[in-house]
Amino acid sequence: MNARERIQELADRIVVLRDAYYRGSPTVADAEYDAVEDELRGLVEANPELAPDPNPLEQVGAPAVLHAPIRHSRPMLSLEKATKPEQVAAFFERFPGQPVVVMPKLDGLSLAVVYENGRLARAVTRGDGTTGDDVTKLVRALTDGIPARVDAPGRVEVRGEAVMLRSTFAAYNTDHPDKPLINPRNAAAGTLRAKDPATVAGRNLRFFAFDLYTEPDSAETDLGSALQTLGFTAADMRRCTDAEAAQAVITTIEQQRNELDYDLDGAVLRLADRDAYAAAGTRSSSPRGALAFKFAAEEKTTVLSDVVWDVGKTGKIAPVAWLEPVFVGGTTVTRATLANQEVIRARGIKIGDTVLVRRAGDVIPFVAGVLDASKRTGAEQEIVPPTVCPSCGHPLTEQGNSRELFCTNVSCPAQTVRRLIHWASRAAADIDAIGGVWIERLAETGLLEHPSDFYGLTKETLLEYDRIGEVSAARMIESIDRSRQVGLRRALIGLAIPMASEGTAARLCRAGFGSLEDVVEAGVDGLVAVEDIGPKVASSLIEHLTRLRPELERLREAGVSLDVREEDLPPVVAAGAPLAGKTVVITGSISDPRSGEKVPRPTFQRLCEKAGAAIASSVSASTDMLITGADVGAAKLTKAEKFEVEVVDQSEIWPQLIAAGIV
Ligand SMILES: NC(=O)c1ccc[n+]([C@@H]2O[C@H](COP(=O)([O-])OP(=O)(O)OC[C@H]3O[C@@H](n4cnc5c(N)ncnc54)[C@H](O)[C@@H]3O)[C@@H](O)[C@H]2O)c1
Ligand SMILES: [Zn+2]
């Protein structure tokens, strides 16, 4: 693979990993994600002309879409990362004689809190760094550490991290055993996503400040004291004047990380003097006057007491390690994943072994290996994979190189529950008012078997359960009603068809399938004609959707929409499309001239597609037009010149989009 292909592959992978991460379900550990970013950064430094466009390294966070969008006064950036003492020393060398504060890197979500003439005006999430969500109402109701007033004139902007304290998290989960929070960070993010503070009562957050901007300039230039004077709890800052002292503080923070009441994933170094920090300026996505030292994923040792085989929604049987309770990565872990038989074999794990358990970020803890096989007593037992399904007794089949085990019995009770939970999940029908524990109970009592059974539930039936009251029953029913708008793409995801991914569902919509029934009718031949759908995926879709026909009918009868939704369709090219037939590359930052608001790249792309353009990611001989926004990199322009590509400023495109009625 050449550098260009590798760069594109890494950039694509970053987009996928970030998407999962910012939706609250990361698929890899942070360190693994950071390694992908590092590789891309290295390749782009060596081959600047191959920089991907858009370049994920120049983007932060995820677009804000939940509440009202608010533009930040100045971008909320990411941080440069370090993992070695040499990098800390290099940071000090860049700023000779400047004192530095070292503080914990709190693992919550960052907020900008703005005061106008002493009054709290608004609180905004980071969002994509340029525009965030207005969470003022939620913050007023739920966040401690944000005073309603400050004693300062003009405009004051305080930035910091909103976290759920571990103690709040633990107390909440004790009170809500049927709908527990996953971890403090996820909980903080979820809390600030709520539409109404009342629905997240009891989920209080704490705000720790680490950044300050004042207009007019306040006299106090030391960051920590300036924040305290205003009445904020600053992140715990220790002042250092050389790299050794800073390294010592970093080590102390890492050692204390288990005793603190909040999650942290590293330490932040930052120039202590506000003027010096401002003068240092910024790079494309991080300030020069700060550095994040990231801690390795936490590892602990404990005893593997047993292995149970868990049945998943597609019938996959996965080994789960039962562990003696161990506190790692901010929570007590008693279960961890062992992936599959091959991983068990490769890591040589036996029951009774002392094993290393690793947990990083939100990722499910996993058994990383055996601590010291020479210390075995002989009482350890081999882990023997089952030959029949632990739930239904059906003989298992083995698939793939890692010899994953599957139960192929479609009426297997364990699979039934998993599939119901999956149907209700956010990526599918999003029945958010009914948690997994309730789904399981409703399945046990025979009320739920297929997704369509959700739509037969009534408030009266739910009220027969002791722990469901009027209010929650009403919320559950309302949530079920809303989920009737699921549509083709999300319904396909929700049906958990083996081998069909979220990408498969999106591709089928874009390829013109109008409903789930259309997909069945197309047959294997019709499906493999769709780009990127292979024969295995096609056969699996046809086999399972054919089997599910009666269920599809029941869903239809219950008023559930299985038809494609507008948002999942390819753009409709407008009549008299001004960019028809043109291959277009977009670069730089785009804004709508009518409002001056920044327009996210995907939104502008879709507008150009509606105008008939085919979008390409880099300039080549086949490019017809390069559309430029603000802050365009020189490399793109040089290439455009080389290939004699027409360069058009975005300001000339908007009037055409408006004239064609596209915007
Ligand atoms: N596992 C995955 O798949 C995956 C995917 C994407 C991102 N990530 C992780 O998410 C992070 C992405 O970077 P990012 O831009 O969101 O954050 P970052 O690591 O670059 O750090 C910036 C953020 O740190 C926070 N912060 C906490 N304490 C701070 C302090 N004392 N001073 C300054 N800032 C402080 C702020 O919220 C700020 O927005 C990385 O840690 C990365 O590993 C993981
Ligand atoms: Zn089974």
TrEMBL record:
Q: What SMART domains has UniProt attached to this entry?
A: BRCT, LIGANc
Stated EC number for the protein is 6.5.1.2
Binding positions for Zn(2+)? C389, C392, C412
Q: Which cofactor does it need?
A: Mg(2+); Mn(2+)
Catalytic residues identified in the record: K105
Q: Where is the BRCT domain?
A: 574-663
Give the superkingdom in one word. Answer: Bacteria
Q: Which GO terms describe its molecular function?
A: DNA ligase (NAD+) activity
InterPro entries of this UniProt entry? BRCT_dom (IPR001357), BRCT_dom_sf (IPR036420), DNA_ligase (IPR001679), DNA_ligase_AS (IPR018239), DNAligase_adenylation (IPR013839), DNAligase_N (IPR013840), NA-bd_OB-fold (IPR012340), NAD_DNA_ligase_OB (IPR004150)
Q: What family does the entry list? A: Belongs to the NAD-dependent DNA ligase family. LigA subfamily.
Q: Which NCBIfam families match?
A: dnlj, PRK07956.1
Output this protein's name.
Answer: DNA ligase
The taxonomy runs: Bacteria, Bacillati, Actinomycetota, Actinomycetes, Pseudonocardiales
